[in-house]
Amino acid sequence: MEKRIFDLGGKKLLIVDDDPVVRLLLKITLTSWKNTLFEVAADGAAALKRVATTGYDLILMDLQMPVLDGFETARAIRSGQVGISNQNIPIIAISADLSEGAKAKCLHLGIDEFLLKPLDTTTLYGSIQFQLGDRLRPGNLG
């Protein structure tokens, strides 16, 4: 069986989740991929500060967080509060919330994709690859 190689071509991601275990699992996953850069934030307020000062190619964000939740964080990003150039950063929501209401709210706020926890590595990579589109050098999913 051929080993899968996940390669993000040097793209920079922001992980936003208040759960330290989820942050650790995402760090372990992303560290195992080739050419992957990432930073972490524990809540939406910290994420907005990072987005305002750092260029990210994609944001992976929990929806239910203290201080500032993922919905309000996405609203701030999409409205240009952290810079016009950041309005279109792809945002993938990661949540355990199965409700149609959460998915509909994500769509309304301009969140690009909704993934359920727990995350599967291949699904996560496929979603990131899809959201980055032409900006990503394809890896070997073989």
What does this structure look like?
This protein has helices spanning about 20-30, 45-55, 70-80, 100-110, 120-130; strands at about 5-15, 35-40, 60, 90-95, 115. β3 (about 60), α3 and β4 (about 90-95) form a beta-alpha-beta unit. The protein has a single domain, classed as Rossmann fold (3-Layer(aba) Sandwich). It has a five-stranded parallel beta sheet, sandwiched between helices. The chain is of the alpha/beta class. The radius of gyration is 14 Å and the shape is globular.
Put simply, the count of helices is 5
User: Which of globular, elongated, flat, extended, rod-shaped describes the shape?
Assistant: globular
CATH class categorisation: Alpha Beta
Strand line-up across the major sheet: 2-1-3-4-5
Helical content band: 25-40%
CATH architecture classification: 3-Layer(aba) Sandwich
Question: Which quaternary structure do these chains form?
Answer: single chain
Structural class comes to alpha/beta
Strand content: 15-25%
Q: By CATH's scheme, which homologous superfamily applies? A: Response regulator
Largest sheet: 5 strands, parallel
Mean pLDDT: 91
Give the CATH topology: Rossmann fold
Number of strands: 5
Q: Which blocks of ≥5 consecutive residues have pLDDT under 50?
A: 137-142
First and last CA, distance: 9 Å
Number of domains: 1
